[in-house]
Design goal:
Blueprint: H1 2-11, H2 16-22, H3 27-41, H4 46-57, E1 62-63, H5 64-71, H6 75-79, H7 83-86, E2 89-94, E3 97-102, H8 105-115, H9 117-130, H10 133-136, H11 139-159, H12 166-171, H13 173-183, H14 185-194, H15 201-215, H16 219-235, H17 239-244, H18 248-261, H19 263-279, H20 283-297, H21 315-324, H22 332-339, H23 342-354, H24 358-362
Antiparallel strand pairs: 1-3, 2-3
Helix pairs in contact: 3-8, 4-5, 4-8, 4-9, 8-9, 11-13, 11-15, 13-15, 15-16, 18-19, 18-20, 19-20, 19-21, 20-22, 21-22, 21-23
C-alpha cells in the first residue's frame, strides 16, 4: 500500500523522499494516518464509514445487499466508491452480487484497532444480524454465525475469573446460544439448502460447540455434542449421492470431508468419483479428483494403501482396480506411486499387463 502511494506521488512529480520521511514507523501508525485522510474524503458518507467498521469484524466476504442492511450504504455509494476507498478491499462475486472484504486480514485487524469503539459496535450489530438468519437466510450468516459466537465466548474465557460452575457456564447467553444453534436442525437444513457446495458447515457448528463444552468442562454438553457429531457423520449423504444429482462440487467436498476423517477411505472416495466421471466422459472432473488426492498426500508421511485381506486392508486392491481404469487421466501414475504400497503397485502392474498395457505397467 505504501509502495502504491509512493508510485502515485512520483507520477504527480512530487518528491518521493520527502513523503517517505514523513511516513510514521509501524503499520498501525500508517493506518491511523490513512484513516485521517479517508475521513476528509468520506466525512459526509456515513454508510461508507460504517462499511469500514463492519468489514473490520467480518470473517469473510459480504454481499452488497447485506452491506446495505448492515452499514446503511446505498447501491449508488457502492457503485461509485473512490479509488482511495477501493484500494483497501478485495471485491468478488457471489449469487450475482459483488462482495467486499478487506484485502488482507491484517488490514481488518489494524483498521479495527484504529476505529476502536465504532468497530466494536459494528461487530455486535453484525452478530445480532446473523442471529436473524431465519429471516434473511444470508449466506454470510449461515457460514459464520457459529464462528462469531465461538469467538465471543473465547474472548469471555480469556477474561473470565475462575472457577466457574457448570450452571454458571451454561447460563452465559453466548454459550447457550451456540449450543442451541448446534441443536437446531432447521439451521443445518438451511445451510444445506443455501450453500449446497459446503456440506461441512453443520459439522463445523457442532465442532465449535464441542470445543466450548470441553474448554468449559461441561460433561453433559460434551457427551451431547459428541453424539450429535457422530450421528451426523454416520447419517450424512455420500459423495456418490451428490454426484448422481449432478452436484459435482458438493460430491468432491463430501469426499474431501471424509479425507479429513480417514485419509484411506477419503482417497478411495475420490478415486471412485474419478473412475465414475472418466467412464461418463467427464475427464476434467476425473483429473480434478486426482489433483485433490495428490495435493493431500504431498509432503505427508502416511502409511500407503496396501493389500492384506487378513487384516481387512482391502483399500490397496480397490485403489489398484480404480487406478487401472484411469490411465487416460493426467496424473494417474503419480497418484498411484503416492498412495499404493509395493504390493498395491504390483497388483496394479498385473492388471495393466492383463489389459495389454505393458508400457504403463512398467511405468
Amino acid at each position: 500500500y505504501l509502495v502504491d502511494e509512493l508510485v502515485d506521488l512520483a507520477r504527480q512529480g512530487r518528491d518521493v523522499r520527502v513523503a517517505l520521511e514523513r511516513k510514521p514507523a509501524g503499520f498501525r501508525e500508517y493506518v491511523k494516518g490513512q484513516v485521517r485522510q479517508l475521513a476528509s474524503i468520506v466525512r459526509n458518507e456515513q454508510g461508507i464509514r460504517s462499511m469500514f467498521a463492519v468489514l473490520t469484524k467480518a470473517k469473510g466476504a459480504i454481499r452488497e445487499s447485506e452491506l446495505e442492511e448492515l452499514a446503511g450504504v446505498s447501491v449508488w455509494d457502492l457503485q461509485n466508491l473512490p479509488v482511495s476507498v477501493m484500494r483497501w478491499f478485495s471485491v468478488g462475486e457471489e449469487g450475482g452480487e459483488r462482495t467486499f472484504c478487506f484485502a488482507h486480514p491484517l488490514l481488518a485487524e489494524e483498521f479495527g484497532a484504529v476505529l476502536g469503539r465504532e468497530a466494536e459496535q459494528a461487530g455486535q450489530k453484525l452478530v445480532e444480524w446473523c442471529a436473524r438468519w431465519e429471516q434473511h437466510r444470508s449466506a454470510y450468516a449461515l457460514r459464520y454465525f457459529a464462528q462469531h459466537l465461538y469467538d465471543q465466548i473465547s474472548e469471555g474465557l480469556a477474561t473470565a475469573k475462575p472457577p466457574i460452575s457448570e450452571g454458571e457456564a451454561t447460563a452465559e447467553p453466548k454459550i447457550s446460544e451456540l449450543f442451541e444453534l448446534a441443536r437446531n436442525e432447521e439451521f443445518a437444513r438451511t445451510q444445506e439448502e443455501v450453500l449446497p457446495h459446503e456440506p461441512d458447515l453443520p459439522l463445523q457448528t457442532l465442532q465449535l460447540a464441542l470445543d466450548v463444552a470441553i474448554k468449559r468442562d461441561l460433561p453433559k454438553e460434551m457427551a451431547e455434542m459428541l453424539l450429535r457429531h457422530a450421528k451426523r457423520v454416520e447419517g450424512s449423504e455420500t459423495p456418490l449421492q451428490a454426484q448422481e444429482r449432478g452436484e459435482k462440487e458438493r460430491a468432491i467436498r463430501l469426499a474431501k470431508q471424509r479425507l479429513e476423517r480417514d485419509y484411506r477411505l477419503g482417497t478411495l472416495w475420490l478415486l471412485l468419483l474419478a473412475w465414475s466421471w472418466e467412464n461418463e466422459g467427464e475427464g476434467e472432473w476425473a483429473k480434478r479428483c486426482l489433483d485433490e488426492i495428490s495435493q493431500w498426500w504431498k509432503g505427508k508421511t502416511l502409511e500407503k494403501l496396501g493389500i492384506n485381506w487378513s487384516e481387512d486392508e482391502w483399500q490397496g486392491e480397490m485403489a489398484a482396480f480404480l487406478l487401472g481404469d484411469l490411465m487416460q487421466v493426467e496424473g494417474w501414475a503419480e497418484v498411484s506411486l503416492q498412495v499404493l504400497d509395493d504390493e498395491g503397485l504390483r497388483s496394479l502392474a498385473v492388471k495393466l499387463a492383463d489389459k495389454g498395457c505393458f508400457e504403463q505397467a512398467k511405468e
